[in-house]
Amino acid sequence: MVQGEATISSPWSVTVNGSELTERNIIIATGARPRTPEIAGIEKISCLTSDNLWELKSLPRRLLVVGSGAIGCELAQAFAQLGSRVTLVGRGDALLSSEDPEVSELLLEQFRREGIELLLQKKPHTFVVRDGEKLLQLTDLQNPQQEEIEVVFDQVLLAAGRAANTEGLGLESLGVELNQRGFIESNHYLQSHCPSIYLCGDVAGSYQLTHAASNQAWTATINTLFGFVKRFKLNETVMPWVTFTSPEIAQVGLNEVRAQAAGVAYEVTQFPFSELDRAITEDEQQGWIKVLTVPGRDKILGVTIVGERAGDLLQEYVVAMRYGLGLNKILGTIHPYPPFVEINQRVAGAWKRAHAPKGLLKWATRLHAWRRG
């Protein structure tokens, strides 16, 4: 390990602290950082991000969160539950805008119950310090002519996306290209435009997730070491993710929003936690599990779970989708009673009842009627 500022000086060399290191391949794993939004007067404010908020020594009395994505929602709720008076600002008309509307609506209602003030469809435009108070001035995107809104705060948390750490690496001189979002372009083998330079993690920009970075790291490393014999394509076809709000929101594959956008036909099977014995006994009845399948078949296209232990319950579906197992296999697998995981078998049973062979059931009814005499 060599510590220092590195510049890629050629496709096979890196200069660190004036010394040149050479190798057959280079992997860029410089990650990403919280993006600083373009808001006038932001230089006057000491801002918190998901990187530095852990340095706080005391709870902010009034916390302003800018951003309504996963990080903004997770941290807004965490600080509200710790006792901060939280205001969350978002440009969109919903929390977690990539989720199905019913998921966003459930979380919005939960936030309101917890006392979080939500200012959606608002554009932050200026930070102001007035009479010792910090303020953020907002424009209402639904009514731009309306008088601007001002929010007073003690600390502000910026959760407006992430930017790749690509500056100062010397990529431009090597022809390594960035995409429109500022992340490094790569192929299925995680090679950049310069074939000897690979990348992995947040700097690649596909998923800003720790487990996605780990998966990419394996692919990039194996390809650099053994690519002259065999190369492996990055497999991100079944990528799970969890938003750690309360309730948790866990997903893999398609939800209805993405399926409709892609023009994919699907059927929906949904089962509520309120009908699960374990959830009833622990008073964790909020939420549901929703499975999208190919019409008329048990092939799983995607799963959304909203509720207690959603991230843990999702894994059975990740394995099923990764290895081509359908709902019939989940239904036919013995699940212990009464843990929460039983809900996976219950939703598979709901799908099976909806697809019961009506002709065969009629024949069986007549058969048993005849046997009874």
Outline the structure in words.
This protein is flat. It has a five-stranded antiparallel β-sheet. Helix content is 28%, strand content 25%. It has three domains: 6-34 and 163-226, FAD/NAD(P)-binding domain (3-Layer(bba) Sandwich), CATH 3.50.50; 42-160, 3-Layer(bba) Sandwich (FAD/NAD(P)-binding domain); 242-354, FAD/NAD-linked reductase, C-terminal dimerisation domain (Enolase-like, domain 1). The protein has helices spanning 70-82, 101-113, 171-174, 210-226, 256-262, 277-281, 310-322, 327-331, 342-354, 358-372, and strands at 6-10, 13-16, 19-22, 26-28, 32-34, 62-66, 85-90, 117-120, 122-130, 133-140, 149-153, 155-158, 162-164, 197-199, 241-243, 248-253, 267-272, 288-293, 300-307. The protein has 373 residues and is an alpha+beta fold.
- CATH architectural arrangement of the largest domain: 3-Layer(bba) Sandwich
What overall form do the CA principal axes indicate?
flat
CATH T-level topology of the largest domain? FAD/NAD(P)-binding domain
CATH superfamily (homologous) name of the largest domain: FAD/NAD(P)-binding domain
The averaged pLDDT comes out at 95
How would the blueprint of this fold be written?
Elements: E1 6-10, E2 13-16, E3 19-22, E4 26-28, E5 32-34, E6 62-66, H1 70-82, E7 85-90, H2 101-113, E8 117-120, E9 122-130, E10 133-140, E11 149-153, E12 155-158, E13 162-164, H3 171-174, E14 197-199, H4 210-226, E15 241-243, E16 248-253, H5 256-262, E17 267-272, H6 277-281, E18 288-293, E19 300-307, H7 310-322, H8 327-331, H9 342-354, H10 358-372
Parallel strand pairs: 4-14, 6-7, 6-12, 7-8
Antiparallel strand pairs: 1-2, 2-3, 5-13, 9-10, 10-11, 15-16, 16-19, 17-18, 18-19
